[in-house]
User: Fold these one by one.
Assistant:
Number 1:
Amino acid sequence: MSPKNPVSLKSPKTLSAAEVAAVRAAHLMPLPGPMFAKPIQIVEGNMQFLFDENGKEYLDGFAGVATVSIGHSHPHFVAKLKAQIDKLQHEPPLYLHPAVGAFAKRLADKAKTVNPDMEVCFFTNSGSEANEMAAFVAKTYTGRHDFIAVQRSYHGRTLLTTALTGQHNWRNQQPYPVGVSFTPTDYAYRFAGTPEQSTAAALHGLEQTLKTATQGKIAAFYGETIMGVGGLITPGRSYFSGAVELVHRHGGLFICDEVQAGVGRTGEHYFGIQHWGAKPDIIVMAKGLGNGYPIGAIITTRAIADSMKGLLHYNTFGGGPMAIAAADAVMDVVEKDDLAGNSKKVGDRLIGGLKKLQLKEERVGDVRGMGLMIGVELVKDRKSKEFAPELTVRVVESMKDQGVLIGKGGLEGNTLRIQPPLCWTVQDADRTVAALEQALKDA
Ligand SMILES: Cc1ncc(COP(=O)(O)O)c(C=O)c1O
């Protein structure tokens, strides 16, 4: 789809970026906000394009942090939400509404591809909240409260999900609840050995963690199929089957955090975990599920869900008619336009282009990921593999100046994150590789 530059058509004149930044600084909590040395102001979006207050177009390669799945203001999404707000805007779970149960069935049916027993959903407003709910269910089902998470993971910003996050810079809410232990990451690029040896070492680490840091039986193991915030670290193909076998042997559930990887982002499949062939007990979703409308979900089996029978629990907004209309519209488009197939096609093109660039450019240390969930780890040189966070900042800035927005992440801040809306085209992929090549030259 070509950009229509709708700003001049629709937007009233807004304040300048500098004026907006000043108001924010005066009235919002002094926590990291806008990225870029000179922040940009985005006032409109149209599919994979964003526009600032002056009508400058940007190709969106970060999708509101891997959240806008089908595209900004996608016409089907807009129409479905407008129709819903005209009819009914909020309803608590105290009354029946036809959409929520029907959508729960639709989502659980999708999850049957990874676990045929998946049947039951619970809806929340965010990924953090959905991960909290998954922990609550796992504790209730198993009667235990030991959790294992992976080093470099990110699971959210509530107290428990921050405790489950394995990155020191995000662990800023001490003291934490007890019962979370960390296991090594299958991080092949940084492992002194083959990728297969990296996976074997990570699984050995998990076994040791189970034996030494827990009572031998756990409530659950949390795994992201591809680590988003942690820098797009992508475990080897045998990692999750090995991990799940160990976790089940120790009485735990596998909570598969698909907050970033779900909804077709990793290409070919709706869920990232389908690439690994491992069977989750609980799947956690958010972000792309609502294309930016707040919704999170867990999906689980009847047996696990039934352990919650009789407990008092409530969520004011979760599964409300607007959120469900949003998620339903997203699923319509993901299916009709085969966005998982498109992610694979465009992602392969992007990875191919990035790997070619890597041959010419020794600061491109690693290119990894799947579909439209791609990371490029920048290093000072290929031999030392020294982390290059300052270079990463300069590259992201230069790409922004060229009209391509991407993200950055990883514990050391040296991984470029390319996680665009799933409606990207191969031309968008080529444009991004060219912009990156130029950015590396400029930097
Ligand atoms: C893998 C993963 N899980 C959970 C979360 C938390 O989601 P939210 O920000 O919606 O609370 C995130 C957010 O980035 C995430 O990447």
Number 2:
Amino acid sequence: MLNKLSLFPLTTTIDPSGHLTLRGHRADDLAAQFGTPLYVYDLGTIRSRIATYRRALASYPGQTHLTYASKAFLCPALARLMAAEGVGLDIASAGELFIARRGGADPADMHLHGNNKTRRDLNAALQAGVGCIVVDNATELQLLAQLAAEQQRQVNIWLRVTPDVAVETHHRYTVTGSADSKFGFPLKEAEAVAGDLLAKQQGSGGAGEQGRDFASLLLSGLHLHLGSHFHDVEPVAEGVERLLDLAVRLREKYGWEMQELCPGGGWGVPYHPSDPPMPVEPFVTELVAATALSCRRRNLPLPELTLEPGRSLVAQAGVALYTVGGRKVIPGVRTYVSIDGGLTDNPRPALYQAKYTALLANRAGEAETETVAIAGPFCESGDVLIQAVDLPVAAPGDLLAVPVAGAYQLSMSSNYNAALRPAVVFVDGKEVKLVQRRETFEDLVARDVVDES
Ligand SMILES: Cc1ncc(COP(=O)(O)O)c(C=O)c1O
């Protein structure tokens, strides 16, 4: 059983006057300065998570690479931080590439994912010199070969393989590695497609023009990603075994040497005091050891090992701050306490029945005497951020702090009910920096084509 405070960024405390402080900054001061809803990220917590991954990866006897799955949350300032920390980026669209480059991240240290990459995605990646394109299906392989040949570019590719290994996440929508998945090549198809590609490149496939196209693709590795928010290493190790078997078959038939291997991301984080702890270090250490052993057993040279975590790098660093409004008491049923955000900045409870906790940041020292539901202001009955949380009796104007808000919240946000997306603030030691301003009403109509007639 965890306590609420341990879910917040590192160094979060309650000061003697009962105020929640994030790395020494009072949450209510931040809310007064920037308004609510407000997303606060503690950069020290992100750096600490990066260091933990690196420490654990260091036990791998070969090369390693840490990348950040930017779909968890991306803005130029975060891309800049990752670049400064030497962390590469997993991007999933030309849009993410654009934002990452705006933050100064180097495309050569990115890899592009997506199960239906468009010409625009692929062309943008080729033109920018993205380090690796993770090919998801045979249609994409054809298209990429054609585009790379047109642009006369060599491109490094991995195949995304769906190894048909089940992993337990919090919701079926976050499972990606089982047979019934829209992502990646099933093992048999991966073998056939890779075999075909290698055969064409070696001139044994009667390729002609096509063979020349495929010459622009350099197959350097294999990739899997089982799902998001799991906390069991064994399925990932099993997925790696299956990919290594595939690598052995490709070596035997085509002399192919796998240079890179990426077992994805997906490690979970506790969101709620009832969740078990999910320490990163033992997970990575075990995965690394299992991978090295499995390679040795198959007499495979150690590939460079890339991990691409998202949530476990940034989720705990983020806190969402909301202002409490009204309450509705339904005797014998429940009490709803309303806040000024919800579904539009955090769709996870509606999408996945995700469970959160919260505390009153301006009264964090008080006894929690009632259990309430936290409701957002949007026109959906599903806009309930938390079904049940213990709090002091909340009054209008109180400040509600929701921890573990750093991943898959703002990156999945919307303007439903013409909500304005919140401001984002980075706390870096003593420094507090606004990195994304709150949207304005003008932003809401910025894309509209006005008919002046
Ligand atoms: C291909 C891929 N890699 C990595 C991740 C990151 O997952 P997580 O944020 O759970 O670590 C995702 C997200 O689902 C993904 O789709």
Number 3:
Amino acid sequence: MMITDTIAAISSPPGPAARGIIRLSGPDSWPLAMRMFEPLSAPPPPRRWIPVILKPSRIPAGALFFRGPASFTGQDVVEIHIPGAVPLLRRILAALIAAGARSAGPGEFSSRAYINGKCDLTEAEGIAAAIAATNAIQLRAAQSLRDGRLHQWTLRQTGALADLLALVEAGIDFSDEPGVSFISAADLQGGIRGIQTQIQQLETSAVNWQSTAALPTALLIGPANAGKSSLINQLSRQDRAIVSHHAGTTRDPIAAVMHTSRGQIRLMDSAGLEDSDHDMYRAMDQLRRQVINQADVLVLVLDPPHISLAAEDLLARAGASAGMAWLLVYNKSDLLPATSGVPERRMRVSALTGEGIAELREMIAAQCFAAAPMAAEYITLNQRHRAALDAASQHLARAAAAIGGDHWESAIELVAGDMRSALDELGGICGIVSNDEILGRIFGRFCIGK
Ligand SMILES: Nc1nc2c(ncn2[C@@H]2O[C@H](COP(=O)(O)OP(=O)(O)OP(=O)(O)O)[C@@H](O)[C@H]2O)c(=O)[nH]1
Ligand SMILES: [Mg+2]
């Protein structure tokens, strides 16, 4: 990948906007950008907002100049901020390319940042993930990658492993000198097992990136005819579920997507709760129980005839497990006396008139995003990270199993080989491609042979 030329791209989102940004990175970014402006009265100081006048049409704009390595990509960078009219952005970009810049490929600014050591692979993945995020959970997951928490974890483990490997390799170097040993079998095995435990703990505590892509789910349950399907249609603004005055209209769980200010949520309808031994009701009951297990939040819907039903009874009848998040909603408020008080956690809504629907949407979103398995302190792992952790774990298990026993010293080269492979796998998570690089860093702290 070429990184010595100067690249340019429109880096604001596509479409008209109040402001558009063109970004340049590379050795010629400053002179190329200056060619687009009326002459400046003084050389631009870095990292300051400079008002500029664009040459072709004398449009006032602004620019930010960065001198590498103190920039996002580690190279000289310029951001040109202009009114976000698409034809204007395209014209400036075309002028820059005619003047010698190259049109940047996808992710090329981030890849330059990575190559120049401004961010590691996990942080670059975090940037891409933040751009692609469709909900608040994904955004938080992306943030956890960009924060470099996985990077920090990886550095701690590669550091510990490289320390052990250095002692093993020193033992190999001095193997012809009897009685010289740099680490006991028990300490080596203990050290390797310690790293294995760290990997296991990370794998069980981390959140899967794929799971953040699945929409959080709210399931509506309640007595037949309470208006669950009507609410699904109102909340999702679609005619998704059949509504009728016949109790028992909905039989299968039906899903619809609801858009909220925090992101999208999957709403699931369900059959009304009925006490019946009929085969069909038993099948409906079973289906509902399956869906409950996938739900992040239960929305309990009651209508005036069921006003006295307790939430706990509904949850028990539906087979909800203890500790599930729920909220209770009074539907058909248009039929309730206006004065009826609304106790805490109970909302008055009407699928017919739309009363309280916007509030309910946000209430469901608040509960869903709070209940979904993603707290800021979690590390998010994608498939690439998990594959590397699994491979490292296997190499470490083989190394640990080979240590000890009567003649294990004869297998020391194999143990060192497995440790090196594990180091490569762990280093690969952050894009440290050779364990020479990791070892180089660690050996710098050692003074073997002194
Ligand atoms: N007045 C009034 N009627 C409503 C309201 N919401 C729903 N209804 C009516 O109540 C009846 C039942 O509505 P549904 O949405 O089918 O109820 P459901 O809970 O899905 O019923 P099942 O699928 O049978 O369990 C229909 O006749 C709706 O028009 C409301 O807010 N006010
Ligand atoms: Mg229904």
